[in-house]
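Practice problem: DUF7674 domain-containing protein
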Amino acid sequence: MKNFNDSLIKKMERLAEITISSLQLGKMARTKRCLALAEELLVKGNVEMKNAITNVYLFSVSHYMEMNRLKISQLLPISLHKEYVKQINTSGV
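Answer key — structure tokens:
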């Protein structure tokens, strides 16, 4: 089970890297495909998948978007945006 979790985390890190790279290069179609994939996995995935997307992928991507003043609400799909709002409201910042 630990190997599955480690592999899942590495895959979410890689997806986050691809998404951020796409944002940096201005490849919006690719960025939207990455975000749509994360959205689908968040909606249809099991608990471990949802946790990995929220804690690894969404944290990394939203942090990059915030630092570069990108409009998060316009880019994130609905479920990812809801998770993002939960994250920022429970972070204690």
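Discussion: The two ends are 33 Å apart (CA to CA). Students who identified this feature from the tokens alone can consider the problem solved.
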